[in-house]
Amino acid sequence: MMITELIDQDDFRAQLQAWGLAEAGRLTLAECGPLLAAQLAGPDGALWQERLHALLAKRELLHPEVLAQVEACLDHSVD
Q1: Within a 10 A sphere around the Cβ of 15, how many other Cβ atoms?
Q2: Are 36 and 48 a contacting pair, CB within 8 Å?
Q3: How confident is the model at residue 5 (pLDDT cuts 50, 70, 90)?
Q4: pTM greater than the 0.85 cutoff
Q5: What is the mean pLDDT of residues 16-24?
Q6: Closest residue by Cα to residue 8 from 55, 73, 47, 45
Q7: What is residue 77's DSSP assignment?
Q8: Is 20 left (phi over 0), alpha (psi -120 to 50) or beta?
């Protein structure tokens, strides 16, 4: 049986940094929400939706708090 670690807050923030949001490394998970909301509302919103949906495709690997953050960001992006 293979044990896989969940994608936790640190992993999520590291992924955001890899996608170009350098400030994500200094923020808490909750503070990343407004940052992601701004990206989703910006000119690259479709790209950010695609990125977050790619994370949701791995939902079973996401820590519950990270999953909730990603879902909340995507839910608010369609308002």
Answers
A1: 16
A2: yes
A3: confident
A4: yes
A5: 96
A6: 55
A7: H
A8: left
d(CA 38, CA 50): 15
Instruction: Please write the tens of the pLDDT for every residue from 35-54.
Output: 999 999 999 999 999 999 99
- Of 60, 66, 64, 78, give the one whose Cα is nearest residue 9: 66
Nearest to 13 by CA among 75, 47, 76, 55: 55
Quickly state the pLDDT bin for 1 (edges 50, 70, 90): very low
Query: CA 10, CA 2: separation in Å to the nearest integer?
Result: 22
Structure tokens belonging to residue 4? 């896989």
Encode 11-73 in three state secondary structure: HHHHHHHHCCCHHHHHCCHHHHHHHHHHHHHCCCHHHHHHHHHHHHCCHHHECHHHHHHHHHH
User: What pLDDT is recorded for position 2?
Assistant: 52
